[in-house]
Amino acid sequence: MEAAGGVAIRRPLSEALFDRGGPIVAGLVLAGAMRLAGVYWDIAWHIDLTRDTFFSPPHLLIYSGVLLTLTITVYPVVRAVLRGSPVDLPVGWRLLGLGAAVIILAAPFDELWHRAYGIDVTIWSPPHLTGILAGLLTLLGLVAFTAEWAGARLVTRPRWLDLLFVHYGGAALAGVTVILAEYEFQASFGGNRVYAAAFHGFEPLLYPAILGGVGVLTMVAASRLISFPGGATAAAVWFTVLRLLIWAELSALGRTVPDLPLIIPAAAVLDAILHLTGGRLFGALAGGAVAGAVLGYFVQPPYGAVSPLSSVLAAAAAAVFGALVGDGLGHSIRGLFRRKAV
């Protein structure tokens, strides 16, 4: 608080948040890691042990991460309101709070869903999808806040900021593949070990199509936010590391482990085309189409009589749309850097 002419002037909340940007980002990254580790543990827990209780160990890890996110985002707001400070929330902060709140609401929604319809064995139930998408919204809020903080406080762009965006890109890829976990986890049904998606009768081509769309979307957005060449590849490599860490976590716990989708070749192709086309939108769309085709070849459906050509075409078609959205999203977040550093 400063004084001007005997009148107390309280600093806007956004300025206080940007002053503490480093510890805030570190805490939110930790919370995100807890949620990601808990979600994959929970999926494996359901496969091996079916549904236990609301307070199962994976659930406790997930909601510990959610509560940490909610505490970090809500406490400064409540404190500012009580002090009478101007509450001008950054865009990223609003997304963070909304995502954390929706995840919290997804918990009783899931409990009510089970009481009304019994125990479900699919990730694609409404409460599960609500929680997963809310988690991705929280990550998007963290990315946006990081860009706003960097624009407000960093005069030059340090290398660690690029590495932070590499982590965000890898974490986003790990987050979006949660939606497709039933194509990557096998479970025992009637004494046979089959993919959960096959047991539920899910369309096999949805796997390359959805992964092509959201995967290329994430990689294009990451390439727009990372200043050094090869940003999409760096994010894909870090995604692979994160998934290997999840594999190690589940193996140590004695739980079923998922398959690992190979997306690094697609990311490398995307980076090469973006470089050759000078990073233009045309390059993003062309690169997205080719990267989607490569991705479709390497992540063909794990079951069903599906030709490689069908997988390639499904992923490529979805990837063009993903590249368009990812390009717009990446440029929008980059625009948050333009605030003059103080």
How would you explain this protein's 3D organization?
This protein is mostly helical and 342 residues long. The chain has two domains: 1-153; 198-342, no CATH class. Helices cover 70% and strands 4% of the residues. The chain contains twelve helices and four strands; from the N terminus they run E-E-H-H-H-H-H-H-E-E-H-H-H-H-H-H. It has helices spanning 13-19, 21-49, 57-83, 91-117, 126-153, 159-176, 196-200, 206-225, 231-252, 264-276, 281-298, 308-334; strands spanning 2-4, 7-9, 186-189, 192-195. Strands 1-2 form a two-stranded antiparallel ribbon. The protein has a two-stranded antiparallel ribbon with strand order 3-4. Strand 1 (2-4) and strand 2 (7-9) form a beta hairpin. The protein is globular and about 65 Å long.
Rg on CA atoms, Å? 21 Å
Oligomer: single chain
- Taking the alpha carbons of the first and last residues, their distance comes to 17 Å
Order of helices and strands: EEHHHHHHEEHHHHHH
Number of domains: 2
User: Given the C-alpha coordinates, what overall shape results?
Assistant: globular
Spatial strand order of the main sheet: 1-2
What is the number of E strands? Answer: 4
- Unreliable sequence segments: 1-8
Q: With helices defined by DSSP (H or I, 4 residues minimum), what is the helix count?
A: 12
Q: What structural category do the secondary elements indicate? A: mainly alpha
Classify the beta-strand content into a percent band. under 5%
What composes the largest sheet? 2 strands, antiparallel
Q: In percent, how helical is the residue content?
A: over 70%
* Overall residue-averaged pLDDT value: 88
